[in-house]
Amino acid sequence: RAGDFFTTLRKLRHDAEMFTWLEQEGKVTTELKKVFRGIFHSAKQKHSDPDKVFELAFNEETNERKMWQKANNKAVYWDPAGREVPSKTLRAKAAALKGLEDSLEST
Prior knowledge:
- This protein is about 50% helix and about 5% strand.
- The chain is elongated and about 60 Å long.
- The chain has helices at about 10-25, 30-45, 65-70, 95-105; strands at about 5, 55.
- By secondary structure, it is mainly α.
- It has a two-stranded antiparallel ribbon with strand order 1-2.
- The mean pLDDT is about 90.
- The longest helix is centred in the middle third of the chain and has 17 residues, at about 30-45.
């Protein structure tokens, strides 16, 4: 089995909220949402500093661990708009950018 995972409460909270929203939108399963919310609530009882890194250790090979390993820090949903590539990009000339910067500084 691969090693366990290092994370923070802030990251776990973000993930729990993200998976809750994705589940409400029908993009991920309810089971996946419950895994991330459960891990966050469990960790919150043991850790108080939101930015302190700690190890998230699973005692055995469970479905929860497998789901976590597949979804943690992975793109679990891509909106179709995110797959579109613009046909042409616009690039401003350096003088135009300088003019914009100067106008912002004067306001």
